[in-house]
Structure formats: C-alpha cells, structure tokens
Specification:
This protein is mainly alpha-helical. It is built from eight helices and six strands, in the order βααβααββαββααα. Strands 1-2 form a two-stranded antiparallel ribbon. It has a two-stranded antiparallel sheet with strand order 3-4. A two-stranded antiparallel sheet has the order 5-6. A hairpin with a 5-residue loop joins β3 and β4. α1 packs antiparallel against α8. The longest helix has 21 residues.
C-alpha cells in the first residue's frame, strides 16, 4: 500500500504521535480529526486516520489548548492549501512550524514501519508471542522492562542479540499493538529472571515489625 494511502488505527496513531490512545479517541469524538473507514473481515468498519490526520492530531495536541475551534480550523485549512509549506500562518498572531512537526512524525512512522518488519509472530516460537525475527526474545517483554525502569545497558547485557535500536522498536511496536487480557509473566513468555530481590514497599507496616528488614 502506498505511504500516502496508508491508514492508522488509534493505537498506531498514539504510538507515532506520542499521545495517549484515550486522547486520540477524544480527538476523533470531537471531530478534531477526520477518520477513514477501515473495513476488517467479519466486522464493522473501525476508526482509522490518514497520514494527514496524524499531522492534525499532533498539532492539536501540541497547540490545541492555545487555539479556539475557529482558529484551529483555519490552521488546518491553511495546511491543506499549502501542503509543502515549512511554516503556516494560522492568523495574524500565530505561525506554526509545520515542517518540524512533519519531520518528527515521519521519523516515528519510519520507526513503526521498521518495527513491523523486525517483529513477527510464529506459532512455533513461544506460542505465537511477538518476537524479534531470528530470536526468541518477546518484544512486549522488552518494552515492559523499559517501562518499569530497567536501563538499556542492563537489558542489552542480558540479551546480547539485541541492539539499542531494537529497544526503541520494541517500545513503539508495543504501543501500536497493545496486548489484550492479562499481561503474560516473563516465565509465560519463555524468559527467566537473572536474579530476584525482595524489597519492602514504603509505608508497609511490616517494615517496622521486629526482625524485619528496614
């Protein structure tokens, strides 16, 4: 499918724009961005955004609070009228660097495309859990480690087959393809922790009992 004709689900739109998926649905509900029908086999049409819709979504999130609905619509009309312009004058008081927004969005779209090519499902590998091609390393597990505060250095040390770029790809792929149901544990994904450590949570009353660690 040509890049210009590609459409993005709300989750994909959230991943490439850096906006929460709830905010994406909010923008669609308020008709701030238009959606295209995305027919799927066996189901009703689902919400989907075009590349231009992603740009509008990004700009709305970035400067939307500073614009009235009328000024925002004038900005979008100006962008449509001048698709190659680096800057667009929304009115006498506001000039928007559309070129920078497009470059940032394009970089994220390329990262998502790269992630889609690097991560796949194989029923014969970890029961179909999405993994990096040529490995048994689950993308969602890596993204979860990053989200929970694990350093890139520690993850790369534990998984030499990975590269720093692959960590970025795991994060954007997982954001674009949120898992349904209960998250799988590391063991369910075919991984084992290298070490464990028991810690006492702050405020836990057991921390002050005799014989317990402080």
């Amino acid at each position: 499918m040509a890049a210009s004709a590609r459409i993005y689900t709300p989750a994909e739109a959230a991943a490439v724009s850096g906006i929460a998926v709830k905010a994406v649905h909010n923008a669609i509900d308020k008709k701030i961005v238009e959606t295209n029908a995305d027919p799927r086999p066996g189901g009703a049409a689902r919400r989907a955004l075009t590349r231009e819709g992603l740009l509008r979504l990004t700009l709305w999130h970035g400067i939307g609070s500073a614009l009235s609905a009328e000024r925002r619509e004038k900005l979008f009309e100006a962008i449509t009228a001048m698709p190659n312009a680096k800057t667009v004058r929304a009115d006498d008081l506001l000039i928007v660097d559309v070129g920078a927004a497009r470059r940032q969005l394009d970089a994220r779209i390329r990262a998502l495309d790269e992630a889609e090519a690097a991560i796949h499902r194989d029923k014969g590998v970890l029961g179909g859990e999405p993994v990096f091609k040529g490995t048994r390393i689950p993308a969602r597990a890596i993204a979860a480690m990053l989200a929970q505060g694990a350093s890139a250095e520690d993850i790369l040390d534990g998984y030499p087959a990975l590269t720093p770029r692959m960590l970025d790809l795991a994060a954007i792929w997982t954001a674009a393809h949120p898992a349904r149901g209960r998250p799988k544990t590391l063991r369910e994904q075919g991984l084992s922790p290298k070490s464990t450590q028991r810690v006492t949570l702050k405020g836990d009353p057991r921390a002050h009992r005799p014989g317990t660690a402080r």
